[in-house]
């Protein structure tokens, strides 16, 4: 029997038992999370550690006349034992509920929806992947981490809702180190391994590594033309996603994009952001039990829709659109531009090529002003040619400048950047981003 199908069947069996065990007016929601992952760690271009992780858990919420409590339990794969654990969890929550106050912002979905999506593209053969990595990294000091395997989510409720989602994916995150201690960082992720595409990514990283031989270019604080590679732009977007598109943050006036949604500021007409669930690895339902849909968050530089979870909907009189807990995008897609990959350096002319950013924070959150550091392969470019690496420097600039008045072009090619987080378990969150050419980036030190 297909083990992944077996997981779905075991989850369904637990749901059926729970529906029979519930006593009116009790209600429940039940979430399921599982992964079957292969992890491989590289150092000096060789495999240093390999292992597998298989785990599954349930998140049970019991509701009774406005009171609710939650418990999470680990599953062992034995149906009888798992059912016993669920029964014990149910009994524990029944004892807890009378001690709790009612929740005025609890908004359960009463619709009996059904969703089933299995993205079952064959995962890459590990031996073939290792051979590609060995061949492409020959002669360089590669440090990296490869993760691959299916991730499963399930949801069910006492109201008849049932969802199942499986996504097969891989993520290879690596750095090439120079003998002087500097490095080039890169990644390759997706659902289908393409040897040619991976080799091209590695070749670009190797070319950048060769420039780290050159003497470092010292730059004074000031304003510079700059190209932000997709990985650098992802750091900017990660900051904006902390409340930027959240209905709760916007309603409480704490969103970094408050001015954008209020109509007091705009981004460049080149900029559009979508929550593109339908073409991502993310499930088509939220952990709160609402079907998810594609959303247009920013359209041609102007605010459009926002992410609305059930609590925000109840508190502010809005309509739930399936936003995940925290109301942050999990499948963000930025519209592509027209700048071809081969023309990036030529169009940049003289300025900075920034591969990565890190340690970002807000220097002025209401103004969407960010500060952070350049990281890894940042180069000084003159007349369309890389001349020298640049020391780590701090920038301080507004998103309304970087993606607004100073944005010159976006690349035609976008890069899929999957979350490399393995905290609790692997994730399906993703960003599909182009690179950005900006006329002015402010370096402060």
UniProtKB/TrEMBL annotation:
GO molecular function: metallopeptidase activity
GO terms under biological process: proteolysis
Top-level lineage group: Bacteria
Domain Metalloprotease TldD/E C-terminal: 221-443
Protein's UniProt name: TldD/PmbA family protein
């Amino acid at each position: 029997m297909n083990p992944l199908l077996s997981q779905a069947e075991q989850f369904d069996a637990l749901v059926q038992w729970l529906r029979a065990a519930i006593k009116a007016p009790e209600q429940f929601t039940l979430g399921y999370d599982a992964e079957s992952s292969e992890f491989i760690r590289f150092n000096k271009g060789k495999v240093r550690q390999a292992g597998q992780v298989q785990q599954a858990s349930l998140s049970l919420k019991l509701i009774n006349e406005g009171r609710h409590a939650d418990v999470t339990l680990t599953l062992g794969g034995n149906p009888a034992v798992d059912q016993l654990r669920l029964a014990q969890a149910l009994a524990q929550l029944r004892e807890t509920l009378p001690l709790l106050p009612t929740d005025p912002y609890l908004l359960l979905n009463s619709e009996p929806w059904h969703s089933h999506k299995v993205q079952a593209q064959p995962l890459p053969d590990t031996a073939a992947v290792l051979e590609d990595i060995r061949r492409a990294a020959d002669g360089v000091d590669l440090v990296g981490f490869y993760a691959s395997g299916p991730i499963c989510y399930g949801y069910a409720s006492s109201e008849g809702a049932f969802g199942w989602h499986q996504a097969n994916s891989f993520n290879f995150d690596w750095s090439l180190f120079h003998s002087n201690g500097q490095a080039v960082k890169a990644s390759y992720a997706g659902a289908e391994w393409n040897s040619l595409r991976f080799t091209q990514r590695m070749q670009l990283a190797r070319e950048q590594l060769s420039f780290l031989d050159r003497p470092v270019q010292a730059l004074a604080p000031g304003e510079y033309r700059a190209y932000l590679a997709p990985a650098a732009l992802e750091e900017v977007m990660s900051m904006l996603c902390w409340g930027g598109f959240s209905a709760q943050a916007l309603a409480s006036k704490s969103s970094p994009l408050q001015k954008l949604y209020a109509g007091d500021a705009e981004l460049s007409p080149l900029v559009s952001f979508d929550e593109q669930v339908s073409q991502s690895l993310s499930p088509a339902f939220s952990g709160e039990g609402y079907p998810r849909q594609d959303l247009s968050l920013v359209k041609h530089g102007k605010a459009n829709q926002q992410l609305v979870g059930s609590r925000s909907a109840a508190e502010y009189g809005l309509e739930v659109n399936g936003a995940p807990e925290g109301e942050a995008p999990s499948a963000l897609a930025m519209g592509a531009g027209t700048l071809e990959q081969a023309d990036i350096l030529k169009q940049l002319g003289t300025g900075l090529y920034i591969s990565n950013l890190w340690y970002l924070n807000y220097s002025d959150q209401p103004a969407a002003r960010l500060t952070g550091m350049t990281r890894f392969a940042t180069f000084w470019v003159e007349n369309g040619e890389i001349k020298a690496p640049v020391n780590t420097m701090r920038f301080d600039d507004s998103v309304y400048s970087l993606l607004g008045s100073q944005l010159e072009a976006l690349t035609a090619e976008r890069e899929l950047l999957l979350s490399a987080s393995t905290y609790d378990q692997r994730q399906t969150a993703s960003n599909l981003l182009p690179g950005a050419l900006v006329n002015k980036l402010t370096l402060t030190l």
